[in-house]
Write a structure and sequence with these properties.
Elements (H helix, E strand, L loop, with lengths): L24 H8 L1 H8 L6 E2 L7 E2 L19 H5 L1 H20 L5 H15 L2 H16 L1 H14 L6 H13 L3 E3 L14 E3 L5 E6 L7 H13 L3 E6 H6 L1 H11 L9
Parallel strand pairs: 5-6
Antiparallel strand pairs: 1-2, 3-4, 4-5
Helix pairs in contact: 1-2
Amino acid sequence: MERRLCKCGCGQQVKIPSSQFCSGHARKLICNNRDEFYRLYKNECKEIICACGCGQKFTPKRSYRRYIRGHNCRGKTHIELYGIEKANKMKAIARGTIKKAQAGCFSTAEKKERWRRNLRVSCNTPEHLEDISKRSLRNWKDPVFYTKTLSASMKGSHTKPNKPEKLLISIIGKLRLPFKYVGDGSYFIGRKNPDFVSTDDSKKIVEFYGDYWHKDIEADKKREEYFKKEGYKVMVIWGHEIEKSVIEVENRLKDFTNLTVVGTR
């Protein structure tokens, strides 16, 4: 592969095939002759009309330039708009602001330390912490806030059905039972998120309990009682029941939905 010559005019070959300059030569060219750099490196820009409406033509040094230097949308320079004195004052203020920013005058070490100290004092007072605690408790007692926050958290963590739940979904689909999987946080009954809920007006719930995760029998009973208080009938299917016999699970689902003959797909 043939190497190109450096575009700065030094006569050396470029070592990197994708580059047009030798290392450091582009910077030297920018410092010495900026117009020559843009002509060589950016290709020669076409002459355009100033977008301010003055009608003057100019050749921009950068492709995104649309105005002649000093022109604005009204087609006048700052001197024409504000006068020579005010324009010079504005220019001096702008230059001074830039110099101060470059020197770090707006964010000195003393100011940063003062900001950190004030932030620590204002955020760690007992009154502030107590106020945060009260607001948090008030928000979590609100059922709308609770369900929205928990649903968004489950959706953000991409909660999906596990393998036994997928098998149960396929059984429900095969039997065409009126149940829908909502264990991903898409539906809440009060403060609880069931696994399967009926899509008709029968108000029935199918809960799937894995043998590993549901060892606390009292917590499971409280969960079932909570749904029953809300007016729902609850059916529980354990993981070992699906592993033992799928047909028995199908028959239990049929009895729970009061169906004797169910079509298959």
